[in-house]
Design goal:
By secondary structure, this protein is α+β, with helices and mostly antiparallel strands. Helix content is 44%, strand content 23%. The model has no long low-confidence stretch (mean pLDDT 96).
Length: 177
Amino acid sequence: MKALIQNSKVIQIETEAFPVHPSLEWVECDGSVAVGYLYSDGTFSPPAVIVPTLAASQDARRDQLRVDCTAAIVGLFSSSALGSPHTYDCRIEDQANIRMRQAAATIDALPRNIWAHDGVEFTREPHTTAQLDQVVIDMEAHIEADQAKLAGLIATVNAVGTGDDAADAATIAAIVW
């Protein structure tokens, strides 16, 4: 086996060498050498394992949990406002649309059509003011439940801190949505 070396680092492994730029060098190696290994004074060594600090692990996990929370919020939620369970989209534009239609129905008491899924398909269904009020209550409960879950997970992330950054990073990585 041959390792292609650039700036003391293995950048490629091949069974046979081939012509390369003069700044690169082919070196004989065994099957234990991998791309990313370091090469110095005729010896290959694995790259150093970089363990993130506790703060870096916590920051990265909190950021990912916020992304996961947003994805959960803008998913679907359920409401029985129409008398049986229906699901509703909860993307930002859907939240605004539902709230706007609820406000308009409060003014003139006319039913408003919003998209609802009855288990078979999404259709525009007429909702009375009371039904729209219930959809908004259920939407808010859905959002609040996801926000509460996020708060709990962030509290768990924040509580990690044994002094061993590698162990802490593994513990934090296991905290998932």
